[in-house]
Amino acid sequence: MTQSHSQRVTRSDVAKEAGTSVAVVSYVINNGPRPVAEATRQRVLQAIKKTGYRPNGIARALASGSTQTYGLVAPDISNPFIASMAHALQHEAFADGKVLLLGDAGDSSCRERELINNMLHRQVDGLIYTSVDRHPYINLIQESGTPCVMLDRVDPGLNVSVIQVDEQMAAMQVTQHLIDHGYRDIGIICGPREMLNTQDRIRGWQQALEASSLMVNPSWIISTNYTRAGGYEATKRMLQRQLPRALFATNEQQALGCLRALAEHGLRVPQDVALVCFNATQESAYNVPSLTAVRQPVDKMARAAIDMLKNWDGEVRRVEFEFYLRTGESCGCQGHEVHPETK
């Protein structure tokens, strides 16, 4: 039996080839609800293979109430940290028999809303979401009844399930690491001030300084985008003033841009300026000098997010994971041998 490329093979075609009814073909494909004799089942399977029949996924989804898909809406997939999280989520979703649809907001709140609407129209079984500015469109999602897990701290009043690390505590710890090295003049390259994660990281930096009775110099707080270009320009601005002895860049991309600007001015890290950062990936370990950085347990967080959607019961949950500090050469610590499997 042959079919032209323009003609879709139907269950009727399979039934005709197998010499049985359409209902029996459906029972074989859906494993029920009625039993099928093994010999008949094998004839149907052979007919499916011969005709090239592919079940209509949309129709099956309508019948079962599940599309077997999850949606991921992320701020900017070009950010290596976000890309690593997306990769881990895709792995976990696939292991659960689901397809992960990716929506890249490109750091645009308007585009973020459009992506959410698109995911909801596709009737995804669950949504994993990191908002561009931590002011998410929760009402839109909750009105649809779609299970949702946020991968960032949000206002507790939003009544949404969240998987997170304590970014303020993490910023405090990495700043304290610089203080423990003996550095006293410590600046910060942060993200846009209106973003809640920027505010958390500034507070952590400030708390560490104040706890050690060190000066919080407002001129050493430089706000910029969470990009390499942002880190580069922020460092150049700081170089026009009095440069502090150590810097905390609030994401890995900013730190890489900072390194470039310092190198152009003949400054060495850590000999002239020490540097630490937040949300590192394996890229930090392979950089020269390797970056001392806060890291998040991406694989564990991704597994928890997928498990939360898989076992969704409507109850709001907040799960906080422990961050960890991976030391490198950029702060003055002795470097470690790089192992690709180390995360």
Automatic annotation (TrEMBL):
InterPro entries for the chain: HTH_LacI, LacI/GalR-like_sensor, Lambda_DNA-bd_dom_sf, Peripla_BP_I
Keyword Transcription regulation: yes
One Pfam family recorded for the sequence: Peripla_BP_3
Domain of life of the native organism: Bacteria
Domain HTH lacI-type per the UniProt entry, residue ranges: 9-64
Keyword set, alphabetical order: DNA-binding, Transcription, Transcription regulation
Any one GO MF annotation of this record: transcription cis-regulatory region binding
Protein name per the record: Substrate-binding domain-containing protein
